[in-house]
Amino acid sequence: MPPSRTALVTGANRGLGLAVAAQLHARGHRVLLAARDERAAAEAADRLGGQAVPLALDVTDQESVDRAVKYTGAVDVLINNAGVQLDWGESPSAVDLDRVRHTLEVNLLGAWRMAQAFLPGMVDRGWGRVVNVSSGAASFAYGPAAQCPAYSASKTALNALTVMLAKETEGTGVLVNSINPGMVRTRMRPDAEQSPQEAARHIADAATLPDDGPSGVFLRRDTTIPW
């Protein structure tokens, strides 16, 4: 892959997002590290150095995304990593629907908003990669997970979005996939055994698939798994 590709990673100021940005940066990409907090994004970019660029971005705010489009120019790789899990231990019949709404706004509509902003340019240029960071809780083969209903529903819907975008972009040179990184040791899951660096390698692999790579699939590490 040419080293001139530009990759945008949302939620990139810490944890898994920062680790993915570091992986892509090490592979020669110009990396845009997006975060709601401009200072946090700048500190993360400084840690990587080189072609790492901070980007103030709130995926739930259309005006913020519109400003990002004007600032970034062409983006070749989009990693929709920004996400929240706010309802662990709650039940579908009792979870606060305002919490569900906010979860959907970030995990589903945030990724959808980013795809609408950057995917058409990829299609016009005839090359692009979109990776939606999903979860095993979203799989009908293994879940959905009733103990985190809002999160599970949002990631299941994200998987559906992946399939639809992949179908829309079939034959254009753009590949759109979801990936289940497994349980990762982050602020969301501090008890997980897998480090962000371990999980990030597989996400970076999905972001740098060859032109004959799959599109519209659910990945677990380097393997395609059932939806």
TrEMBL record:
Ketoreductase domain: residues covered: 5-187
An example molecular function term from Gene Ontology annotations: oxidoreductase activity
Taxonomic superkingdom: Bacteria
Keyword Oxidoreductase assigned: yes
GO cellular component: membrane
Protein keywords: Oxidoreductase
SMART domains documented for this protein: PKS_KR (SM00822)
PANTHER family per UniProt: DEHYDROGENASE/REDUCTASE SDR FAMILY MEMBER 7B, DEHYDROGENASE_REDUCTASE SDR FAMILY MEMBER 7B
Record protein name field: Short-chain dehydrogenase
Native species: Streptomyces capitiformicae
